[in-house]
Amino acid sequence: MNEEILQYLWNFKKFRSFDFVSVDGKNIEILEFGEWNKNSGPDFLFAKIKIDNIIFAGNIEIHTKASDWFFHNHSGNPEFGNLILHAVYINDCEIPELENQQIPTLELKDYIDETLIQKHQNLREEHSFIPCENLFDKDKIPLFFEEEVLLKKLDFKSEALELSLKKNQNNYEGVLFQQLAYTFGLKVNAEIFLQLAESLDFAVVQKIKQNKVQLEALLFGICNFLDEPKDEMMKVWKREFDFLKVKFNLSEVRINPKFSKLRPPNFPTIRLSQLANLYHSQPNLFSKIIEAKTVDDLYLIFENVSASEYWDNHFNFGKISPVESQKLLSKDFIDLIIINAILPIKYFYQKNHNPEIVDDIFDFYKQLKSEKNSVLDEWKNLGVKFENALQTQAFLYQYKTFCSQKKCLNCSIGFQLLKSHD
Asked: pLDDT (tens digit, 9 = 90+) per residue, 281-321?
């Protein structure tokens, strides 16, 4: 038993009977159970109870044990000055402070169905995928679940973007560049590429983006790739980087991308060249993204982006590959960019400038194919079917934020599973 489940039971009135009697033998009628308070102070606000035909209005505090009143340091706390009831699972001690104020204590143990408590405990026990795996019923997934969860994810992402916008002095294009850098880095180099982008004044990128060689040189140089040129192209990049360092008084910050555990097409050399060529080939990138009406409009922006010609027969500097091919962005990688960078910033911008069309973001996610990974495979094993990225994004966020953290009572699916108990 814990306080969280007690609050849940109180909020949804899950009791065997409502003929409540206080520990000192007084009948208590709960007229209003109160509003569940997730912040500091009493657990339930604006409640009403009747004792001896007298109505009391105020707040209710709930504890697993009465002694928790002392352990939680409530004594003398003014936030608990308007208390009308102390509800506990077990009344293990007397609280003189409450007795002196004639605040009744209600012991709940005999009013609660133990099978419901066991049901909640089962959710929190060890499991192979999610806590409610043995209870999960796809038919209990709430209506509009995917849309609500996706909005939570986008709003959470917007908080980070808001901080980034302030750091970039209200320059959305600078924020976009950083988000794209993070995404191009994939899991292995995401934070490293973000550090690279944040170390640059985006104004420098804007000033040199018409020169593809300089833009690549800028990114490669910050990564310490050009210190020892191995061929003529590297010498060109080094010469350009040395020029840019002086011209723009570049920061001495240098980063070291990782190659381990990456397939050659995902090497940082290839991804940085593709990022440079994206900005070289799309001079009005941010505007095009915001003005895009469909996913096809977004595909048109990225579909011809490739690494520069040097990388047609290279994956790393100075090492010629026996297989020659243009390093275009793959369809799957473009989907990754759109899902993880483009749509969140598009939502963030519209939320700030055109809130009346914010819900249009759902259409973009619905136009993208469903993703594939091990977490989604586990959801599929439980009977969940995915038809688009709106659904997969929602269930990925649900797993990360609620399931893996065992926050069952804050989860809308867990809530439905528990609520269905009669």
From this structure: 998 999 999 999 999 999 999 999 999 999 999 999 999 99
* Structure-block tokens of residue 408: 């069952």
Buried b (16+ CB within 10 A) or exposed e, 371-400: beeebbebbeeeeeebebbbbbbbbbbbbe
DSSP 269-280: HHHHHHHHHHHH
Strands 27-32 and 20-21: antiparallel
3-state secondary structure of 31: strand
DSSP secondary structure code for residue 390 in this structure: H
For the chain, the first-to-last Cα distance in angstroms comes to 19
- pLDDT for residue 421 is more than 70: no
Q: Span 105-134, mean pLDDT? A: 78
Residue 249 has pLDDT above 50, yes or no: yes
Output the furthest CA–CA distance in the chain (Å, rounded). Answer: 94
What is the torsional sign of CA 179, 161, 198, 241? Answer: positive
Instruction: Classify 421 as helix, strand or coil.
Output: coil
List beta partners, residue 59: 83
CA dihedral 327→340→213→171, nearest 10 degrees, is 160
pLDDT tens, 121-148? 665 555 568 888 878 888 888 889 999 9
Q: Tokens standing for 105?
A: 């204590």
Alpha helices, H only, 46-185: 68-71, 96-100, 114-124, 145-167, 172-184
Helical pair 145-167 and 172-184, crossing angle rounded to 10 deg: 110
Instruction: Read off the tokens for 49.
Output: 């109870």
**421 bridge partner residues:** none
Amino acid (one-letter) located at 313: N
| 25 phi-psi bin (left φ>0, alpha ψ -120 to 50, beta other) | left
Residue 101: C-alpha distances to residues 50, 88, 91 (Å): 16, 17, 18
C-alpha span between 414 and 410 (Å, rounded): 8
The candidate with the shortest Cα–Cα distance to 377, out of 150, 7, 129, 13, is 129
| pLDDT per position as a tens digit, 371-411 | 999 999 999 999 999 999 999 999 999 999 988 887 887 88
pLDDT value of residue 121: 67
Q: φ and ψ at 260, to 5 degrees?
A: -65, 145
Return the structure tokens found at 368: 């993208």
> Which amino acid would we find at residue 273?
S
